[in-house]
Design goal:
This protein is α/β, with parallel strands linked by helices and 333 residues long. It has a domain at 4-176 and 206-232 and 298-312: 3-Layer(aba) Sandwich (Rossmann fold), CATH 3.40.50.720. It is 41% helix and 18% strand. The strands form four sheets. A seven-stranded parallel β-sheet has the order 3-2-1-4-5-6-11, with helices on both faces. It has a two-stranded parallel sheet with strand order 7-10. Helix 1 links the parallel strand 1 (4-8) and strand 2 (28-33). It is globular. The chain starts with a strand and ends in a 5-residue tail after the last helix.
Length: 333
């Protein structure tokens, strides 16, 4: 019997790949999108689109119950909708916490979920690691940004739902085709400039979007519930090593520049001011700067490894794939 899966945030970077993988696995796929969302990467005719206003409980209830009355309950709901940046800190709470609570309430009250709710969170909900020790699923959370705190609050909300079978996915920095956030780093290196904010020995971890999708389905289809899964490519890198790999992939040499903290803060404040005038969230802001300056974003993925998770992409192979896509899309020379 074909299983039903609802994927929220389906038009987004991660969500669009989740939809493709769910179709490949034979699910009946319901793509939760906003009415204004692009469907550029959602072209398969098998997709059932649900235009969800997650700020409106009544509307969401009607749309979800109509789908379930026609096709049966959702076996899985993968909640990938959310925001990673905003001009207004209060928006993190509204989108990442309140909307999650409304969705869970509708699913439970209307009995729309058959098996499992999967929340796509972030390593930011844990905050940086202590010393040189990697962050683990059992680490004490200490998020340092409004985004991280909103994701942690949503996770805490789920843990209070004693009758809800759920899993929480905590990916580290996600990159790959269709992503735009990593593009600036590559463009900067291509301009022969290698920037550091803080130590060159900052510990970092990454996961290619296809490995993240594989990990999400591996955890979703497992019998496990009520726990967190950290996701990376199972390796940790220094900032200097990351830049070495990027330079190698782009075939360039660079001038390395370490930006003093006070200059970075000043630049972030000025960038925010310009962003506010334009009504757009700048790449560099004081919230993001906190992450750039933290010394340890290494991750350990013990729980996933116990399920047999093995990534297909290390950073070198993953960046080659991503750079190829950027070039084909005309975003990188």
């Amino acid at each position: 019997m074909q299983k039903n899966i609802l994927i929220t945030g389906a038009s987004g970077f991660i969500g669009s790949f989740l939809v493709e993988e769910a179709i490949r696995r034979g699910y009946r796929v319901f793509a939760g999108i906003r009415s204004s969302s692009s469907r550029k990467y959602l072209t398969d005719p098998a997709i059932h689109f649900l235009e969800l206003d997650m700020s409106d409980t009544a509307s969401m209830t009607q749309i979800l119950t109509d789908a379930v009355n026609t096709h049966g309950a959702f076996d899985y709901v993968v909640h990938a909708a959310g925001i990673t940046k905003s001009l207004h800190l209060s928006e993190y709470y509204e989108v990442n916490v309140a909307s999650t609570e409304r969705l869970v309430t509708v699913l439970q009250q209307e009995k729309l979920l058959r098996e499992k709710f999967v929340f796509v969170s972030s390593l930011a909900s844990y905050g940086p690691g202590t010393g040189r020790n990697p962050i683990t699923a059992l680490s004490t959370p200490n998020p340092i940004t409004a985004y991280g705190r909103s994701k942690r609050e949503a996770e805490n909300l789920l843990y209070k739902q004693t009758d809800l079978p759920f899993l929480i996915i905590n990916p580290t920095a996600v990159y790959g085709p269709r992503d735009k956030d990593f593009l600036f780093v590559l463009q900067t290196v291509q301009q022969k400039l290698e920037l550091y904010v803080g130590s060159r020995e900052q510990l970092l971890s990454f996961v290619h979007v296809m490995d993240l999708v594989k990990a999400i389905f591996l955890a979703t289809e497992s019998p496990l519930v009520q726990q967190n899964f950290l996701v990376s490519d199972l390796a940790n890198y220094s900032t200097a090593e990351m830049n070495r790999i990027i330079k190698q992939q782009l075939g360039v040499s660079t001038f390395a520049l370490t930006v003093p903290g006070w200059i970075a803060v000043t630049a972030a404040v000025m960038s925010e001011a310009v962003g506010n005038l334009r009504g757009k969230v700048p790449l560099l802001n004081r919230e993001r700067l906190k992450e750039f300056r933290a010394s340890n974003w290494a991750a350990a993925c013990t729980e996933l490894e116990q399920l047999g998770y093995q990534p297909d992409f290390d950073l070198e192979k993953g960046l080659a794939d991503t750079i190829s896509w950027y070039r084909t899309a005309g975003l990188l020379k």
